[in-house]
Each structure stands twice: as C-alpha cells, then as structure tokens.
C-alpha cells in the first residue's frame, strides 16, 4: 500500500513538472507571438 502511495506521488510530481514545462512553453510562444504581432 505504501509503495502505491509513493508511486502515485511520483506520477503526480512528474505530471506537475510536465504541466509546468508546458505552461512555460506556451508563455514563451505567446510572448514571441505578441512581439511578432506588435512589430510591423
């Protein structure tokens, strides 16, 4: 049972890192898109 809990928390931590990286990529893309839109 304890192994299951540690396994779950590991999966959650990996998912969190994945979403964090994804958010970072989206921010960077939006930033460069915003700059591209702003520059004539």
Automatic annotation (TrEMBL):
Residues that span the membrane, as ranges: 18-38
List keywords of the entry alphabetically: Membrane, Transmembrane, Transmembrane helix
The keyword Transmembrane is annotated on this UniProt entry: yes
Can you name this protein? DUF3265 domain-containing protein
């Amino acid at each position: 049972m304890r192994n299951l809990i540690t396994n779950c928390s590991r999966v959650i931590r990996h998912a969190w890192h994945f979403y964090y990286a994804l958010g970072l990529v989206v921010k960077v893309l939006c930033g460069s898109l915003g700059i591209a839109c702003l520059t004539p």
